[in-house]
Please model this.
Amino acid sequence: LEYLRRADDQVKIRGHRIELGEIETVLTALDTVTQAAVIVRDDRLIAYLVGTTDTTTARTHAAGALPDYMVPAAIVTLDALPLTANGKLDRKALPEPEFTAAAQSRAPRTPQEEILCGLFADILGLERVGIDDSFFDLGGDSIRSLQLVSHAIREDIVFTVKDVFEQRTVAGLVSVAQAGALSRVPAAEFDADASLTGLSQDELDLLQSEWEA
Model:
C-alpha cells in the first residue's frame, strides 16, 4: 500500500486540523476573486488568488470569517493558477511568496521601537522592518506571535498575544506596551487552562517553555 496524500486536503498545523477548501471557499466569496488555491509552505498557509482583489482586502475578509490560525500568512495574486497537463492545479509551480517590508514604512524613532523592529526582523527572517509594517503581512502567525511576546518580555517590553493581533505593527505595540517584569503580564497569557487567549494547548506550552528557557 503506497500512501500518497489525504484526498480531502486536510492539513494539521500546530495542533489545528484545517480544511484548505474551507479557506478557499471564504476567499472566493469575494466578488473580485474568481479562483483561489491554498497550500502549506514551511508550516505556513499561503493563499493564491486570481482576480482584482488587493491582498489587504482579502486578508481583512479572511480574518473576519476565519479563526486566526486559518488566516493565510501570505496572499499572492496571480493572472491564472498554474495547471498540470491533466488540467489540475500544479502546486509545485505556485511561486514562493515574498515577505518584504514596505518601502514607505518609517524607521524606528525610540529605543523601544528599535528593539521591536529588530525582534520582528529576527523572528520573521527579514533584513529590515519598519514601525508601520504589519507583523502578519510579513509572514507572522500565531506561533510567531508567541515568540515575539516572549522575546519582548526579555527586553523588558511587555504586551500580550492579543495585542499583537490587534495592533500588528511596531508603532501600535509600543503604544500599548508596558515596561516591567513578567509579573505584570496577565496570567491568562501563561495559564494553560485559560480559554480566552484563543490559543491551542501546544501554543500555550510553547510560550511557557520560551519564557522558562
User: Anything to note?
Assistant: Strands lie at 10-13, 16-19, 33-41, 44-51, 74-78. Helices lie at 20-28, 55-65, 111-124, 142-154, 161-167, 170-176, 201-212.
